[in-house]
């Protein structure tokens, strides 16, 4: 009679866990690759510096948190740098300024105070808004080739209900790359200059003008999103998924690790980086549960940084934009959905929707303020009724 813990069963469980960690490690590519490849190919930033930064940040996060805490580009900063063709110095200055601000907020206690004002309803509202924004970005990327994008999205969505769901994401990416290579009509390779992606690594330092411009045009728009999504919301989500590690998964720690990473790695060419609730959601969805996922991702980034050349640039450019869009849409859908949207109390639903609508209509800082004001009003009302 074969026991329930037979070597074969243990081996299968270990393989499935490793497969889940590996799949989860690369599940956030829909957010990561479009911004990173844009900085490298369109703005001619050094790929070595950018991948080195992400690699070190991911590995150190893995060793510290021991959970699948993701690292990703600061989306507002990266998008503005790409869209406006800003200099590497502007990106460096914005990353270091964000690092300084996060460290000040963490060690002053301001982050901890702000997190205490953030109820679950406010957090869900912020996540709903960010999730909808990611879904919109993903849909635009999928529109480059609707059939491929929505086909990939459908497979990824259906895979959630299948036993081998961890295989879906790597198989979809591999299939997209094979299709791209065979047809050479894919949509990233036509938009990216492979030669521009081989800019040599060099140390630079921002000028006085770049410091000032970065503070005004990059840091201020990014700060609200970082505080809500990459510090407070991810802390609430991580503590919910891993309650046994709640003491370590605090807003203060997330602010400290992001702050140190930006302050110390930006001088070496790293992009502005942070953690992210959306990244945690999609990595967890595809099977990441331990430090192995960020360790695998970080090690891959370091290998790419050390071996970067035209061949690797060409290989990454084979991933179709529509495939990346499908991954981004899945991440947004997972982040936006919450049971509280259905079973929450009426006032809870009001707070969620008010917070989300304000985030979408104005920005994340305004949405956070509206949510906190409504929650404070609820608490005062409840105290008055006692």
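Q: What amino acid sequence fits the structure above?
A:
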């Amino acid at each position: 009679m074969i026991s329930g813990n037979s070597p074969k069963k243990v081996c299968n469980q270990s393989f499935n866990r490793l497969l889940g960690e590996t799949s989860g490690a690369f599940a956030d590519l829909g957010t990561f690759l479009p911004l990173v490849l844009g900085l490298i190919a369109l703005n001619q930033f050094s790929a070595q510096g950018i991948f080195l930064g992400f690699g070190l940040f991911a590995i150190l996060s893995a060793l510290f948190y021991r959970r699948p805490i993701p690292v990703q580009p600061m989306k507002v900063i990266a998008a503005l740098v790409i869209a406006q063709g800003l200099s590497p110095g502007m990106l460096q200055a914005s990353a270091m300024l964000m690092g300084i601000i996060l460290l000040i907020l963490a060690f002053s206690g301001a982050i901890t105070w702000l997190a205490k004002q953030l109820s679950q309803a406010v957090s869900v509202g912020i996540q709903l808004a960010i999730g909808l924004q990611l879904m919109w970005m993903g849909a635009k990327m999928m529109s480059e080739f609707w059939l491929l994008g929505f086909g990939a999205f459908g497979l990824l969505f259906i895979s959630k209900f299948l036993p081998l769901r961890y295989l879906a994401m790597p198989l979809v990416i591999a299939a997209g790359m094979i299709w791209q290579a065979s047809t050479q009509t894919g949509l990233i390779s036509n938009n990216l200059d492979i030669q521009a992606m081989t800019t040599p690594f060099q140390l630079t330092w921002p000028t006085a003008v770049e410091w000032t411009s970065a503070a005004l045009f990059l840091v201020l728009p990014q700060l609200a999103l970082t505080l809500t999504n990459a510090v407070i919301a991810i802390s609430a989500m991580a503590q919910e998924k891993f309650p046994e590690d709640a003491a370590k998964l605090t807003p203060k720690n997330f602010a400290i690790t992001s702050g140190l990473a930006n302050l110390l790695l930006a001088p070496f060419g790293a992009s502005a980086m942070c953690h992210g609730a959306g990244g945690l959601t999609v990595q967890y969805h595809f099977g990441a549960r331990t430090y192995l996922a960020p360790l695998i991702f970080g090690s891959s980034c370091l290998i790419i940084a050390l071996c970067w050349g035209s061949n690797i640039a060409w290989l990454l450019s084979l991933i179709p934009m529509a495939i990346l869009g499908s991954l981004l849409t899945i991440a947004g859908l997972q982040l936006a959905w919450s049971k509280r949207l259905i079973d929450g109390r009426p006032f809870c639903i009001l707070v969620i929707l008010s917070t989300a609508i304000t985030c979408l209509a104005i920005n994340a800082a305004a949405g956070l303020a509206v949510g906190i004001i409504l929650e404070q009003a609820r608490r005062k009302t409840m105290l008055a009724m006692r």
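Q: And what stands out in the fold?
A: The beta strands are 72-73, 273-274.
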